[in-house]
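Entry type: protein chain
Record version: 2
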Amino acid sequence: MASNALHISLLRPPILHILRAAGFHATKPGVLDTIVDLATRYLSLLAFKAAAHAQENHNDLDLDITDIRMALEDAGAFQPQISAMEERITGKEDLRGVEAFIKWMKGKQNREIRRIAGLVETEGLLPGLDVPEEKEDFFTSLKKKHNKTGESSRFQGTVLGSSAEEKPVRIEGGPYGNLQDWTANLQRQHRTQSSSPLGQPSSALSSTASSPLTDL
């Protein structure tokens, strides 16, 4: 499966949970695909904007809260609020949009989706059920459901799990035991050939090629 198709498939379950939390109990596949496409475009816009602001602010791609805030401002998530340029001109920081966004995220209308995401306590919401105290998002629960063995290594090294530890590749036979030693030796040979005087053969093959063909 292509990377783009994989990411879209991973985005479908969160969109379904958002629709369910908003009160929708059914939808047509075409409608779901359209909403997923809109969410993909919006998240891509935020990612590109945040990366661009990170390069401008501190010349790297280690995003901080300022980069995310500026990306959300560019996407129109903070309204009504003046821009960062207007803040510098007026000398006043406008937090109306940020405060309204936080209030909306923590409001009652988003309580169900925050519960599914593991951001609110579940005690008292599901009477008669034994709910664990540890907060757990639906994606982690989904991976545990499909991992019958209980081993976290099943998804290791994939986009669904942690990064796999790099193991040295052993080379059987020959003077070098692993790829690192072989690469280092190859780089030394390349530096030696590059620093050899002009016109002087740097290997046995080039010396043979430049010798007169007296045996013919």
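Comment: Residues 123-132, 204-211 have pLDDT under 50 and may be disordered.
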